[in-house]
Amino acid sequence: MKQVKVFLNEDEIPRQWYNIMADMPTPMSPPLHPGTGQPLKPEDMAQIFPMNLIEQEMSTERWIDIPEPVLEKYMLWRPSPLYRAYNLEKLLDAPVKIYYKHEGVSPAGSHKPNTAVAQAYYNKVFGIKKLSTETGAGQWGSALSMACNMFGLECRVFMVRVSYDQKPYRRLMMQTWGAKCFASPSELTETGRKVLAQNPDSPGSLGIAISEAIEEIVGKEDSRYSLGSVLNHVMLHQTIIGLEAQKQLDMIGEYPDVIIGCAGGGSNFAGLALPFTRDKIHGKEIAIIAAEPASCPTLTRAPFGYDFGDLAMTTPLLPMYSLGHDYVPAPIHAGGLRYHGMAPIISHLVKEGIMEARAYPQLETFEAGIQWARSEAFIPAPETCHAIAAVVQEAKRAKEEGKEKVILFNWSGHGLVDLASYDAYLSGKLNNYQFPEEDIEQAKKTLEQFPKP
Ligand SMILES: Cc1ncc(COP(=O)(O)O)c(C=O)c1O
After folding, report:
1. Domain covering 5-9+68-109+231-448, topology
2. Cys-Cys with 148: which of 155, 265, 287, 446 at CB 3.0–4.6 Å?
């Protein structure tokens, strides 16, 4: 019999996260204080995050211990299985082996709980009682709701309007785990009210929702904000995915030629790719590819520079590829990929040519998702469909070039709560959104106001 899945025993779970900051081949520009423009100091972030997470955010230690209570929660679904996609391989008839990490097995259905559980834990031990956050498709909001419930914290989630309307079931997941969920822009914050005054029908954006979630907690001693992607500590927590994958591939004597993940803020891609990126920095030949939407082409077309993570310019200035903090991306169904910026770690590695990025139009990604569902059976989240589109493209290339390749990708989440998107696709109602060149020019102008990295 062919081996379809590779499992690690529970006692083989990695006990440390990997921090790429210890191995960066070239220095990264620091985040800057939004007011002074000076490199950020830990205390500058103390109103927003607990100090234990700020320390992780700034750490250059290569290995960071995973606390026992976090490991205990991880055990509910981790180690996640490594699968081989034999059926898709057969369908594509290409000289490739396709492996994937199934992160859809978590209770919330995606990779997001890997950092949600860690962040809830660190906030709890710091004495925080309430967390507030934003969510796109609702994957992150539901993950944090679950994690807050596990550690006895209150949770308030600002959900991007377009997803709030498209995906009512994620709101219900959040409520089931005891959180409160609001459509963003909302009337609850000054930022929300301002946006609604200008455009009452605003579909919302992650940038707006982040501003609302931060505004909620600033100045409140018992409350902090939590971000589901982009920041260094989030990338760190997600490395459990790649570290497990390395052990699993070792067990079957494989090593990938190509690593793929979809990229919204960069966390699931980073989680799988960073432990292998370390190998690449030390000489391994691997192609490491981020797949993003053509309608929100942050890595493939946006300028690199300092920009804010949110509309209201409350976050630190981050060195990253950005479409502009005030950019409202098209209302595509992959809500988790509608972010104007990108993790500074991923941005830096793409800029240095260690990673690469490709953009895919919405229809191509759903076509790939359907191909997957009809061969491998699991229904992928619309975000994950972007990674699958890249896998299909790589397999076709391998066939054209007559080269054997081992492809490893991150199956970041299931789409069982995203079936409305599949309905829209299957009934021919979905479009490809073009990203206009003028908007790139506008992004350049936005970034020109800020210091150069
Ligand atoms: C299933 C899934 N994949 C990918 C993403 C993109 O986020 P990130 O780039 O941080 O992994 C999201 C975000 O919500 C998601 O829900």
Report:
1. Rossmann fold (3.40.50)
2. 155
413 close to 139: Cβ distance less than 8 angstroms: yes
pTM reported for the whole predicted model: 0.97
CA of 7 to the centre of ligand 1 (A): 24
Q: Is there a common fold for 5-9+68-109+231-448 and 36-66+113-225?
A: yes
Take residue 33 and report the two structure tokens written for it. Answer: 């204080």
**Angstrom distance (rounded) from CA 225 to CA 172:** 21
CATH topology of domain 36-66+113-225: Rossmann fold (3.40.50)
Asked if residues 312 and 215 have their Cβ atoms less than 8 Å apart, the reply is yes
| Minimal-distance CA residue to ligand 1 atom 5 | 336
Query: What contacts 101, CB < 8 A, 6 or more positions away?
Result: 80, 81, 82, 83, 241, 244, 245, 272, 408, 409, 410, 411
Instruction: Verify whether ligand 1 is closer than 6 Å to residue 268 (CB atom).
Output: yes
Instruction: Give mean pLDDT, residues 425-430.
Output: 96
Spacing, Cα 400 to ligand 1 middle (Å): 31
Tell which one of 262, 299, 350, 418 to mutate to probe ligand 1, the residue whose CB is within 8 A of the most ligand atoms.
262
Candidates 80, 102, 111: which one to mutate for ligand 1, based on the most atoms within 8 Å of Cβ?
111
Distance (Å, rounded) from C-alpha 229 to C-alpha 327? 18
pLDDT-based confidence at residue 348 (cuts at 50, 70, 90): very high
Using a 6 Å cutoff on CB, does residue 137 contact ligand 1? Answer: yes
User: Which residues 6+ apart lie within 8 Å of 237 measured at CB?
Assistant: 17, 114, 115, 118, 119, 271
| Residue 197: strand, helix, or coil | helix
**pLDDT grade for 328, boundaries at 50, 70 and 90:** confident
Which residue has the least CA distance to atom 7 on ligand 1? 264
- Distance of CA 86 from the midpoint of ligand 1 (Å): 25
Q: What is the pLDDT of residue 449?
A: 95
Q: How confident is the model over 376-423, as pLDDT tens digits?
A: 999 999 999 999 999 999 999 999 999 999 999 999 999 999 999 999
Q: Measure 273 CA to ligand 1 centroid, in angstroms.
A: 14
CA-140 nearest atom, ligand 1: 14
Q: How confident is the model at residue 77 (pLDDT cuts 50, 70, 90)?
A: very high
- Hey, where are the domains in the chain? 5-9+68-109+231-448, 36-66+113-225
Interval between CA 106 and ligand 1 midpoint (Å): 14
